Amino acid sequence: MELQLKVFRFHPEKDLRPHYDLFSLEAEATDRVLDLLEMVRAEHDPTLAYRRSCAHGVCGSDAMRINGKNGLACKILVRDLRSRQITVEPLLGLPLIKDLIVDMEPFFAHYRAVLPYLVNDEPLPEDGRERLQSPAERDRFDDTTKCILCAACTTSCPSFWANRLYLGPAAIVNAHRFIFDNRDRAGARRLKILAERQGVWLCRTAFNCTEACPRYIHITQAIAEIKNALLNHFI
Ligand code: SF4
Ligand code: F3S
Ligand code: FES
């Protein structure tokens, strides 16, 4: 089928402001949006800039706005969009670098702020082996282990658009992953960080994050669990 791909363009050294380029492409219904971008670069304009790596929904590098909604270009098929015109734009709320590429550093700074790693300085069990967990203990945080740090959630959140200092849903998901891990010993430190002015209380339960997540993580529920943990922790 023939379709039109409308692509957000901005070259920081040449353009005063962004514009859109329109490309007519011959595509299959089973092509992914990433395939369309590859087609543009191979056949029309090799200067088009976007990020991609795995092309299989694993690395999280090609999140963008596709027909107005955040998603991974390598996971969304032409047939899913039910339209002969597809618009691709960079994520909102992060500084634009070029075309579809945004600066992820503010996003990763928020991620780092919640101590996204296991903290436990206690001696290992006597046999020197791993700290064992029951299946139920592991299940407690299973959902939030699935995050691939694509930023689709945080950049679809109206609270983040209004206040870029808000830690955002992705950082909270990654805090949840360790707060509810019974091997970890820094839960209280993380909860203190999340209770601060830029933490979870800026979440207004908009649910955009949950809708945007390509890993189907129950983000709003994870945020609610953190809010409950905070209420119980400080009462
Ligand atoms: Fe992406 Fe989902 Fe992780 Fe957010 S929680 S960064 S949407 S994988
Ligand atoms: Fe934002 Fe998600 Fe809360 S979209 S307001 S973090 S439920
Ligand atoms: Fe890796 Fe899409 S390119 S998730």
Key features of this structure:
binds FE3-S4 cluster, elongated, binds FE2/S2 (inorganic) cluster, about 30% helix, 2 domains, binds iron/sulfur cluster, alpha+beta, two-stranded antiparallel sheet, Ubiquitin-like (UB roll), about 240 residues, Fumarate Reductase Iron-sulfur Protein, Chain B, domain 2
Explain how this protein is built.
The chain has 235 residues and is an alpha+beta fold. It has two domains: 2-102, Ubiquitin-like (UB roll); 105-234, Alpha-helical ferredoxin (Fumarate Reductase Iron-sulfur Protein, Chain B, domain 2, Orthogonal Bundle). It has nine helices and seven strands. The protein has helices at residues 33-43, 78-81, 105-113, 135-139, 158-162, 168-179, 187-195, 208-212, 219-234; strands at 2-9, 19-26, 63-66, 69-72, 85-89, 96-98, 101-102. The strands form two sheets. It has a five-stranded mixed sheet, with helices on one face. A hairpin with a 2-residue loop joins strand 3 (63-66) and strand 4 (69-72). Helix 6 (168-179) packs antiparallel against helix 7 (187-195) and helix 7 crosses helix 9 (219-234). It is elongated and about 65 Å long. The N and C termini lie far apart (61 Å). The mean pLDDT is 96. The chain binds iron/sulfur cluster, FE3-S4 cluster (F3S) and FE2/S2 (inorganic) cluster. Iron/sulfur cluster binds at residues 60, 147-153, 169-170, 173, 212-215, 217, 219. FE2/S2 (inorganic) cluster binds next to loops.
